[in-house]
Amino acid sequence: MDAVILGVAVVNGIVLGGLYGAIAIGLSLIFGVMRVINFAHGSFLMIGLFVPYWLWQLFKVNPYVSVLIAAPALFMLGYAVQAVLIAPLYRRERAMVLEPVSVLMLTAGVGLIMDNLTFMAFGPDFRGITLDFASKAFRFGDYLNINYTRLLAFQVSLGLTALLSLFLARTDLGRAIRSTAQNRDAAALCGINVMRIYNVTFGMGCAVLGVVGCLMIPFYPVSPSIGLAFGIRSFITVVLGGIGSIPGCILGGLVLGVVESVAAQFVTATSASIFSFVIFILVLFFRPTGLLGMKV
Amino acid sequence: MKRTNWVVASVVFGLTAWSVAAVAGEKVDEVKLGSVMSMSGGAANQGTQTKTGAIIAAEEINAKGGIPALGGAKIRLIFGDSQSKPDVGASETERIIQRENVPLMFGAYQSAVTTVTTEVAERYKTPWLVTGSVADIITQRGFKYTFRPNNKAVYDANEQLQAIKTLAQETGKGPKSIGVLVEGSDWGKSHAANLRKLAKDINYEIVFDEAYSPGTMDFSAQILKIKSKKPDAMIIAMYTPDHIVFTKQIYEGRLDIPFGIHSVGAGSEDPNFYKAVPPQAVEYMFVQEDFQIDITEVAPWTQAVDKKFREMLGYELTCYGAQGYSAIYTIYDVLQRAGSLDKEKIREAFVKTNITSGPALIMGWQKIAFDKDGQNVDAHGVISQNLRGKRTTVWPVTNRPKGIKPVWPVPAWKDR
């Protein structure tokens, strides 16, 4: 195998991996704090893709400007879903279990409803937008070309991760979120409004998808069923990196991206995903908390 | 004890009444035609188009007084959603056959789904008219109740290679090596297998041969590999979303394939595909079409169908729409000759089908007749090329409109 091609494969993998990581951040954050796997994660991403799509289609708003609308919109949507639908279940079950199964089912239901409502509204079509900017790329030699939009998505993903980590580490709200993640009851005893923290966390997890959606729409088509494709991969990314760890998410994404991209040069791309599952199993075996996960 | 008796009695009575009603209601004023179609999930788009075509045909027939041989019975279409999944398709088939008591079924677009739904239909001895699915195996299992009017995958592959050969002969320039990239489910894989077999016979070397998992976000790994293997022509089989991502990436990456990208149906026949990619990105791409794409110019009567289709879906008649339309008229022809809703009589009528004119041939075929495996051996598609933003038939040569000259080899990106 040619060294140049291998190098290019690694670069491609890194660029894609950063995005995998960013997609998974919301899932990790919500799971880390609420102990709930958000099955509607892919559906929120679908909404996150549709918002910039329609803003472009109807008002010609550049997708990168749409972030200013999509992120708050998704935050509010997530906040509302948590406050109106999930919170009552939590209140009912909080005394009994730490990881309420009914909430899990509820998120799956919310996902189905979101998918089908979008389906009823917009139909099954795959839609994409074409920006002039989107078809430009850095080209080095014959092999390496990095598309501007993908590169931007990668950079913003890293920036977003750094911002979010800083936010969780340094601000009062961030500390409150982390303490709720560590011990819900102790946090409540210290005067933290746990339910409000849950609302904010869910909202933030979804807001990230609003940002990611705006980054992806220039090169990725959207349809009401598109969320499905991202559910499982996000979950692997999160477990690989360490549940609840934001930098872990990006690391997990990068590992997945590079492994798939490099392996695809040796075997067919369908078999290449076997390697990511092998790594997934190995990590679960030898480091069950994930690459950057803390001991619980 | 007494209570149990009441329950049993009411159940027995209820069932009797229901089945009497079912039998009595059957022949009087309507024929229920069952269908399983992908109306949600990854292939929702094409499934919806086929459904729309079928509805247009059924409305036409009903408006003209239904099916004469069945006393003017009106057609009522019953659709089940496969959700683009084989297992759901199978259970929907079972439900429609058992609960709705339909005499025959049609569908289901995706080969992976149709392969299993036809199995269920075979078990219930219910005739199944295939729409859209091309996987060879569907009519190679010795099934008695499966009938396919459209191409088998092997025909598609053959047409693509024949078109390349024809263009090479016309110009004296042609590819020596071919790359193959297909989606990794039944349809893509069977297409790749056929290409391998046929390419060998006509001495094209396959230098790149891969399948990818549907729903792929990024083709850079595959494009990189294609660049290093340098095939002279590429044959691809993709559904809409993957085709959009792939097309955008080869355009960004300036992937030069001297004798063009040859896409087999599906994604590249979907109008949504052309809306989602820049027009420069698809210029000169060849498409293996399941029906004559310029049919409204060749056969003016189809313009009415096209108009109706546009009203319902907002874009021009597609091959999937035409398949649904053709299926209903084929069934109309079969029911006319069967003169009964008995499944065996319908099957016999299917076997004796010989349609040589009429709306069932909207696909551009000259004939629908089924061989012993239930395959229409007279099915064929056309190869078009994207020329100045319009798909124009270039193969077979007899179907090529006057004055059209295929661009061959295709210019490199830097020369466009």
Q: Can you give a write-up of this model?
A:
The complex is a heterodimer of chains A (about 300) and B (about 425). Chain A is built from eleven helices and two strands; from the N terminus they run ααααββααααααα. By secondary structure, chain A is mostly helical. Chain A has a single domain, classed as ABC transporter involved in vitamin B12 uptake, BtuC (Orthogonal Bundle). Chain A has a two-stranded antiparallel sheet. In chain A, helix 1 runs antiparallel to helix 8, helix 1 runs antiparallel to helix 10 (about 245-265) and helix 2 (about 40-60) crosses helix 8 (about 195-215). The longest helix of chain A is centred in the N-terminal third of the chain and has 32 residues, at about 5-35. Chain B is α/β, with parallel strands linked by helices and about 425 residues long. Chain B has two domains: about 30-150 and about 300-365, 3-Layer(aba) Sandwich (Rossmann fold); about 155-290 and about 380-415, Response regulator (Rossmann fold), CATH 3.40.50.2300. Chain B has a seven-stranded mixed β-sheet with strand order 7-6-8-9-10-11-12, with helices on both faces. Chain B has a five-stranded parallel β-sheet with strand order 2-1-3-4-5, with helices on both faces. In chain B, strand 8, helix 8 (about 240-250) and strand 9 (about 260-265) form a beta-alpha-beta unit. Chain B is globular and about 80 Å long. The N and C termini of chain B lie far apart (about 85 Å). Classes of the chains: A mainly alpha (about 300), B alpha/beta (about 425). The interface of A and B includes residues 2, 130, 136, 223 and 224 of A.
